[in-house]
Every structure is written in C-alpha cells, then in structure tokens.
Amino acid sequence: MEQQQSLTRLLALGTLETVLNQAIALESQSAARLTALHGTVVRIRLEKPATSIYMLLAEDGIEILHDYEGSVDIRIRANLGALLHWLIAPGAIAADD
Length: 97
Known about the structure:
By secondary structure, this protein is of the alpha+beta class. The chain has helices at 2-26, 30-37, 80-88, 92-96; strands at 41-46, 51-58, 61-65, 74-78.
C-alpha cells in the first residue's frame, strides 16, 4: 500500500511540475521573473492534507521535489483550498504585484 501511495505522490508531483512549467512558458514575463529567482527554494507546507513539497526555481522552469535537505529561502503554510483559491482567483496574483 505504501509503495502505491509513493507512486501516486510521484505522479502527482510530476504532473504538477509539468503543468506549472507549461503555464510559465505561456506567460510572457515568466523568463525574467524566473531569472531573478534562480536558485530560490520554496517549501510549501499544506495543512489539509498534511504534506510538504519543495519548489526549486531556475531560469528554465520549476522543479518540484517531495524531499529536500538544503536550506529553504521561502516558506509557505496553507491549506490546499486557500492556496488554490489564491492561485486561481481572477486578478489575485496581478493585485499582489
């Protein structure tokens, strides 16, 4: 059962990474933003469901890991619903810029 959960998590993280990188490729200002953040590590700790993921930002995209032992630059803690709402709410990201 644990192996199946690990495989499911791996597939979910791979899918998330692919979707994020495709979205970044579609947005014209992404390259400049990623260049400025190159080398930044973000830990996202979800409260519901309880899990953490790490995003490594690079000039050419984002890599998502389920475990990371280096130093973390940015820490985000939220429940999944609130995080998704912030990401997809119309104008939410533009309003923060």
